[in-house]
Amino acid sequence: MKTNILYHGDCIKILREKIFPESIPVVYADPPYNLSGKALNLKNNTTGGPFYKMNEKWDTFNYNDYLDFTNKWISEIKNILLPNGSLFVSCTQHNIAEIITSAKDLGLKLNNIITWYKTNAMPNITKRTFTHSTEYVCWFVKGKNWIFNYEAVKQFNPNKTKDGKNKQMRDFLDFIEIPIVQGKERFRGEEGRAIHPTQKPEVLLDLIIRASSNHDDIVLDPFLGTGTTTYVAAKLQRKWIGIEQNDEYFKISQKRMEQINPSIF
Ligand SMILES: C[S@@+](CC[C@H](N)C(=O)[O-])C[C@H]1O[C@@H](n2cnc3c(N)ncnc32)[C@H](O)[C@@H]1O
Fold first, then answer.
1. Which residues pair with 87 in a beta bridge?
2. What atom of ligand 1 comes closest to residue 226's alpha carbon?
3. Which pLDDT score is estimated for 171?
4. Domains of the chain, CATH where assigned
5. Cα 2 from chain centroid?
6. DSSP secondary structure of 82-119
């Protein structure tokens, strides 16, 4: 099976055709959240139109189609995971219920829900709910002997011992504080607008990949977007496989991978 490769197309088809059963130790998936197209007509809005949190074609399903889609891709992932493999899924309040129900129906076990607190979350525009400032990463396992590199995760604990060593994880929980991607890390178009609405921070992938895999292990992302997962995996000397169906995002992820020096593989 080919590794260190990006596939351009529908992940369900590619997972079936190109990836061997029970061959992958770690999958990170950041699927469509199905939150697009819900317009907010705010009182006193002076911007000339309704406000959309997100309005992407690839993120728009009716409810039953979303359930069906979720079930199909998680089922394909279950087939390609090694018996001790891990699946990490990024989600929000919009789809966490569908993700967990589907994964559990397919026989995966939920090990953790990591809460990502976005320190620079969007302001509370509607003033009708608590400010949304969190996303989640659900960690599922297929069998019993999953990898968890406790010592590697300890280095993410911002609190150190008096002599500067990494502390135990009593004060570093299933909770991580990271800003939404900004600055040089964010891919932007000519007018300075973010190219991808949900580009994930590299440090989030760094934590997940170090925690759940070892050198040379394969890390696969079926919804690659701008290539964050494969980029971080390559830097950590893991093998990588990415799948993305959108032309523009696929090209960005290709360019991003070209920046990696092939001598490190
Ligand atoms: C939430 S975004 C992932 C963002 C990514 N984590 C990053 O850091 O850039 C989901 C991505 O999945 C892609 N996508 C949606 N449906 C897909 C499918 N069936 N097969 C492959 N890619 C798909 C979308 O084009 C989008 O780029």
1. 27, 140
2. 9
3. 65
4. 5-264 (3.40.50.150)
5. 22
6. EEEEEEEEEE-TTTHHHHHHHHHHTT-EEEEEEEEEET
